[in-house]
Specification:
This protein has 465 residues and is an alpha+beta fold. It is 32% helix and 26% strand. The two termini are 20 Å apart.
């Protein structure tokens, strides 16, 4: 098969590359290959079984059209200050301009026009003051909340639009390797139902998301793609009663707080807050179970969950941050017998494990029913655990009750986007004809910024001869 543009991965970065090329009037032939299924065929059996079935050959939560975005809470962060380091590459003003442009595309496909986290000036000032006193920084970021069920509808509309306008999407195609001719990428080798074939392309875009970050890192070493080890995020998913987060949920919807707690002064931040949401599980190719969270527009629980992530930066001679995070996750999975572990914050401070019977009689009931009560501190690195404890205690000054004894901590929450591909502001890598986008590139974190990177790529490819 031959094509003008080949996109590997149908996550936000990949699909917005194709979408923007159509919007620019490009007549180039576009092919997308995706390991997972079309969005209407993505179904997690846990809804019926009540527990993770460890689906093979891939997890439907993380793989398929729109990537992890389809089953996430669907939050679009509308500020350049949130979502990774892309503004460092393209400039802050341009990044914000492209966020505004991309947001309009989401609106065209049915995104809710309501924006959370704007207005409420005096109440935001009070929250900011408490954050300053606690040694934390409150990042202002308007949020457009799609909701898990609405996000699936929106991305289905985008999928139909792409197909109806001539974009060829091949589902169930696993990309094995890149095809190079010297310092030029000429396509990829894919495998479908055990049959291998080559797809040749003038321009190849790799946008495989967090799930594909490890795979892309290996390809960088094999083919000499310029990159550098970046930051890896290790943390927990915290769950509290809605009453504790009531003011923050109402005023900000998502409280994006950043701190550098002693003694290590590593960057620690909140991420992906879900008012009335659900704690969820994702599975990766090597049977690694990690925790996440999402929230629906209409269906709500009595709890709010959010992630607390510790950023780890490694120096010479270590250059395998993704593998390091995976080992932390594997150890936690081992202690939880392959399931997500949960522990009460008070038990962590008391130096004891949590028992299942203690969760049943508590005020905070887990929204991940098959999570296993235990001791996450037996697997979490000392440095990360210390950071989490001190950050939660600082958070308690901003949100009283956040560090309560019954607050639940789920582990492991890991973000695999640490390998950063070296590129210029036009997304060119050192390999001609090869472009790397989205979370797997190391430059973005989340739906909006990955989508923005795709839009910019679409505009660049539309202009190329």
């Amino acid at each position: 098969m031959k094509t003008d543009i080949l996109i590997v991965g149908a996550g936000p970065a990949g699909i917005f590359t194709a979408l923007e090329m159509l919007r620019q009037g490009s007549r180039k032939k576009i092919v997308i290959v995706e390991k997972g299924a079309a969005i209407e065929r993505r179904h997690c059996p846990k809804v019926k079984t009540g527990e993770c079935m460890n689906c093979k050959p891939y997890c439907h939560i993380t793989t398929g059209f729109s990537g992890a975005g389809a089953f996430s809470d669907g939050k679009l962060s509308l500020s350049y200050e949130v979502g990774g380091q892309l503004p460092e590459l393209i400039g802050e003003d341009y990044a914000q301009k492209m966020i505004d442009y991309t947001d309009k595309i989401y609106l065209e496909f049915g995104a809710d026009s309501h924006v959370e986290g704007i207005g409420q000036g005096e109440e935001i000032k009070k929250i900011r003051l408490r954050a300053i006193r606690a040694g934390l920084k409150l990042v202002d970021c308007p949020i457009r909340h799609l909701g898990t069920e609405k996000a699936q509808q929106l991305y289905h509309a985008i999928q139909q639009h792409l197909v109806e306008n001539g974009v060829e999407i091949y589902f169930g195609y696993n990309c094995n390797n890149l095809l190079l001719d010297g310092q030029r990428c000429i396509g990829v080798e894919v495998e479908h139902k055990g049959v291998k074939e080559e797809i040749r392309a003038e321009h190849t875009v790799v946008a495989t998301g967090r799930r594909g970050a490890d795979w892309l890192e290996k390809l960088c070493g094999e083919h000499g793609i310029a990159h550098q080890p970046g930051t890896v995020d290790i943390g927990v998913r915290v769950e509290v009663r809605n009453e504790v987060m009531e003011t923050v949920n109402r005023v900000l919807y998502e409280s994006k707080l950043v701190g550098y707690p002693k003694p290590f002064k590593d960057k620690v931040r909140t991420f992906c807050q879900n008012p009335g949401g659900f704690v969820s599980q994702e599975n990766y190719d090597n049977d690694l179970a990690v925790v996440n969270g999402h929230s629906y527009k209409d269906l709500k629980t009595e709890n709010t969950n959010l992630a607390i992530l510790c950023s780890h930066n490694f120096t010479h001679p270590f250059n395998q941050p993704i593998a390091y995070a995976q080992k932390v996750g594997e150890l936690t999975n081992m202690l939880g017998s392959g399931k997500i572990m949960v522990q009460r914050f008070g038990d962590i401070l008391d130096g004891k494990r949590t028992w299942q019977k203690e969760l049943v009689r508590a005020n905070v009931r887990p929204t991940l029913p098959d999570a296993v009560a235990g001791d996450i501190t037996a697997a979490m690195p000392y440095r990360a655990m210390t950071n989490i404890i001190h950050f939660m205690q600082a958070m308690d000054e901003v949100v009283p009750g956040f560090a309560g004894s019954e607050t639940l901590l789920y582990s492991p929450e890991l973000k695999f986007y640490s390998n950063k591909i070296r590129m210029d502001a036009e997304m060119n890598t050192n390999i001609q004809g090869l472009y790397c986008l989205g979370d797997s590139s190391g430059w973005t974190r989340g739906l909006m910024m990955a989508s923005v990177m795709g839009v910019i790529m679409g505009q660049q490819l539309s202009r190329k001869a």
